[in-house]
Design a protein that fits this description.
Four Helix Bundle (Hemerythrin (Met), subunit A); 183 residues; 73% helix
């Protein structure tokens, strides 16, 4: 949320500081689950909470980026792009919850009763591999894209792609049906 706070104000330095906070968010986000698994303390609640927090962070991040770009340029279109990306992320999160509930037969207590939360079989076929690559590999390196664009003072140019990409991302939920191919 600190990343979103700084990006909200727009400007070069706020963009750099916000991007560095986003890097630390990704670093810690990728470590906590590994530590829990290594200590045999992973839980369904931890996985669900992690997914929920990821949604909140990215929703706030895109809205803040849009607001910051509005302040920098005076052009409202940047805010709309940020809000469209946030709404797309919200739809994606809602669909992932829906697919998990559907797989569990509607019983929230039965969601992810297996030992590996939302583990999905390896994708088969070129189409499945490309979908997983788009959905998961782009997500894992998002912080680096934001930081690179912030260093070049081009962060606002990410927003149109995020606005469209977020919609494509949730539409692809209908292909992967909530399977989690996390990297």
């Amino acid at each position: 949320m600190a990343a979103a706070y700084f990006l909200f104000f727009g400007g070069y330095m706020f963009g750099i500081v916000g991007s560095v906070f986003l890097f630390f968010n990704y670093l810690l986000d990728h470590c906590d689950g590994e530590i829990a698994r290594a200590k045999n303390q992973s839980s369904r609640f931890g996985h669900e909470f992690d997914t929920f927090v990821d949604w909140i962070v990215h929703t706030a991040l895109f809205a803040a980026m849009g607001h910051g770009a509005l302040l920098e340029t005076g052009q409202i279109i940047w805010l709309w792009f940020g809000l469209a990306a946030s709404i797309g992320g919200t739809i994606n999160y809602a669909l992932s919850v829906y697919w998990r509930l559907r797989k569990s037969g509607g019983d929230p207590d039965a969601i992810g009763s297996d030992t590996e939360p939302d583990a999905a079989p390896d994708p088969q076929g070129l189409k499945s591999v490309l979908i997983v690559a788009f959905r998961e590999f782009a997500r894992a390196d998002f912080w680096a894209i934001v930081l690179a664009l912030a260093l070049m003072d081009w962060m606002r140019y990410l927003l149109p792609f995020a606005a469209v990409g977020a919609q494509v991302y949730w539409i692809l939920q209908f292909t992967v049906r909530g399977n989690d191919h996390r990297v």
